[in-house]
Write a structure and sequence with these properties.
The protein has 378 residues and is of the alpha/beta class. Among the domains are: 83-120; 126-281, Trna Endonuclease, Chain: A, domain 1. The chain has helices at residues 2-120, 123-140, 185-191, 196-220, 240-249, 253-259, 267-345; strands at 147-149, 155-157, 160-162, 166-170, 174-179, 233-236, 262-265. A hairpin with a 3-residue loop joins strand 4 (166-170) and strand 5. The longest helix is centred in the first third of the chain and has 119 residues, at 2-120. The protein is flat and about 215 Å long.
């Protein structure tokens, strides 16, 4: 038992020493392995870092090659944005200024329109405004010299003195009578109406006033009071909107006017009528000019005929003068010059000799209708 205990103790001691020895060897080996691993890892890490740095540099260059054009484009885009923003700010300022001006103009227009509406409520002012509009239309058509106005034209009738606002003179001594005394009172009330129903009532009354005035004009029969006048009278309405409003409420106005020989005319239609009249005047003037030219042609032809007869007489006289001259030269040469030459031969003549007188050989050109257009070189 003692030996077993001793052996066990020896084994335990040996095991302890072996354990310590193994621990020491393991720690040494682990330390050595760790150092080698660290060195290897450090070398690999440094190589990886160097490789990564090279790869990162290449990648950075590639990224820079991509980024630089993009950066340039972004810079140009930013400059364009700034320029656009400046232009937008300037345009906005100009637009804002124009809006202010428009607002001011609109306010002034509303004020002037209100003043005009107020003024047009007075019958005298309304009538004067219609006459001024009529005059302006005539001036635009270039027909002022062919139109007479109310202060220039009047005629007596059974109903008293009739005074149309204007008489248009046509070529051929014809006339067209124009009246501009239409009432606009109901229309002006419709403009300032507060409700749609009230507005419609006034516009309906406006159409009734137009029709009433049309009937009154038809009853005056201006065409029977003026000579050479077509059986119609022009009823001038001084605004397209006035006529359109009445026509919306009473669409038979035009037809009724034609039946009553009353032509409803706005500034647009009246100026068209005046242009047609002006064309007739121009054609009439052209016809007069053509007649005058024809008369001048006849007179010129007669004068040329008389002048040609005088020229023919001058030619005959020139021919007779040349013949007489040649006969005188022949007589002098045959009857006088022989004696003169004897004087020279006898030495009785002193000084220079007598010049030789040559006969004339002149061809008098005949004037007739066939060669009247020829030149002197022919």
């Amino acid at each position: 038992m003692k030996n077993i205990s001793e052996q066990k103790a020896m084994l335990d001691s040996a095991q302890a020493r072996l354990s310590e020895t193994f621990k020491a060897l393991s720690g040494e080996a682990l330390k050595s392995n760790n150092q080698a691993f660290i060195e290897l890892a450090d070398k690999s890490f440094k190589a990886a870092i160097a490789e990564a740095r090279g790869d990162i540099g290449k990648r950075q260059e590639a990224i820079d090659s991509l980024i630089k054009p993009l950066a340039g484009s972004l810079e140009r885009y930013e400059q364009q944005i700034k320029a656009m923003e400046q232009a937008r700010a300037a345009a906005y300022g100009a637009l804002n200024e124009q809006l202010k001006n428009m607002t001011t103009t609109q306010q002034q227009l509303q004020k002037e329109t209100g003043n005009l509406v107020t003024a047009l409520r007075t019958p005298q002012v309304r009538g004067r405004w219609g006459e001024m509009t009529l005059r302006r239309v005539v001036e635009l058509a270039g027909m002022s010299e062919h139109c007479d106005y109310a202060e220039q034209v009047s005629v007596d009738s059974e109903e008293g003195k009739l005074r149309p606002d204007m008489v248009i003179h046509l070529h051929g001594d014809r006339r067209i009578v124009v009246d501009s005394k239409v009432s606009l009172e109901a229309y002006l009330k419709a403009i300032s109406a507060q409700t749609e129903e009230e507005r419609n009532q006034h516009l309906t009354q406006h159409a009734v006033q137009i029709r009433t005035h049309m009937q009154q004009l038809a009853g005056k029969q201006y065409w029977s009071q003026f000579e050479h006048t077509p059986e119609l009278v022009v009823m001038f309405i001084p605004g397209e909107s006035f006529f359109a409003a009445a026509l919306d409420c009473d669409q038979s106005l035009l037809e009724s006017g034609m039946q009553k020989r009353v032509v409803l005319a706005t500034p647009t239609t009246l100026i068209t009528l005046l242009w047609a009249v002006a064309l007739g005047w121009r054609q009439d003037q052209m016809a007069e000019n053509a007649t005058a030219i024809c008369e001048l042609g006849r007179d010129l032809f007669e004068r040329i005929r008389v002048l040609s007869s005088h020229i023919v007489k001058v030619g005959v006289n020139l021919r007779q003068t040349a013949d007489s001259y040649n006969k005188a030269v022949g007589s002098m040469e045959s009857r006088v010059m022989p004696s003169v030459r004897k004087f020279q031969e006898l030495g009785a003549a002193g000084g220079e000799g007598i010049e030789v007188i040559e006969p004339l050989d002149v061809a008098i050109r005949k004037l007739n209708a066939e060669n009247a257009g020829e030149t002197d070189e022919e």
